[in-house]
Amino acid sequence: xxxxxxxxxxxxxxxxxxxxxxxxxxxxxxxxxxxxxxxxxxxxxxxxxxxxxxxxxxxxxxxxxxxxxxxxxxxxxxxxxxxxxxxxxxxxxxxxxxxxxxxxxxxxxxxxxxxxxxxxxxxxxxxxxxxxxxxxxxxxxxxxxxxxxxxxxxxxxxxxxxxxxxxxxxxxxxxxxxxxxxxxxxxxxxxxxxxxxxxxxxxxxxxxxxxxxxxxxxxxxxxxxxxxxxxxxxxxxxxxxxxxxxxxxxxxxxxxxxxxxxxxxxxxxxxxxxxxxxxxxxxxxxxxxxxxxxxxxxxxx
Length: 301
Ligand SMILES: Nc1ncnc2c1ncn2[C@@H]1O[C@H](COP(=O)(O)OP(=O)(O)OP(=O)(O)O)[C@@H](O)[C@H]1O
Ligand SMILES: N[C@@H](CCO)C(=O)O
Hints:
Helix content is 35%, strand content 27%. With 301 residues, it is an alpha+beta fold.
């Protein structure tokens, strides 16, 4: 007995400035994953592209954890897991590589075990593994998502903006794990900073829903995580400023970083070049990639 499925999952950018652990956007950068379940026992894994040679081929692999979670929940009698991954999403850079891995594993295993889980159940399971819903929600549903947790259950809103925009992701050559980037965050923040973020997050969602993209300049400001994470990313403030000076609608840290993301209506290449140059001034090698909003989320290919 063996059956196989192929899944494509988008990368995601989370937080989008003030929407810490809540807002996320699916992006047109993808990982492909082929899963075969069998009764032959063992775990085997082939990885091409990002993470090749570094991703573990045992039960510690987050894709394997996600698959095993589905097998346990559904009681499906398979003990052999064969994975073939082709990764384009860089690892530990702020473009949702872990969310894509988790969602890929859950969606693939669900497909092979009779599609017994709803997308909402997959969201809850993915959030339980990832720890927060902001990357996994857009990886599942595509588009822009706002998610909250309520006693272990995720509630989400998914929408597409009426007016499209592009994103320029500037990807520095170094990794920064989400774990390390969360360690520098404080346990509490001044009330004024909470108010600052509540108002910007409301403005951000309003701007994206209505297409009033000029508001993004202020709507992407944040005081909950970016000021604390700046110490981990050489030149961060200058790279964000370079994006705005080159004509970006606004710019922010992507997820936990170190990627920085500019929102653009035009001039995307010039903005990417200006951001790379600003990183280079701080002795950081970087490249940029133009991204659009992915509207589908994880799909079977
Ligand atoms: N395709 C994959 N297969 C297995 N594990 C993966 C894969 N992609 C990422 N991971 C795991 O996830 C880790 C990176 O997750 P982390 O949350 O630190 O960063 P990220 O998800 O890329 O960024 P962010 O959450 O800020 O968007 C890797 O070090 C690896 O352990
Ligand atoms: N909201 C998360 C996204 C990265 O996983 C963070 O900023 O830590």
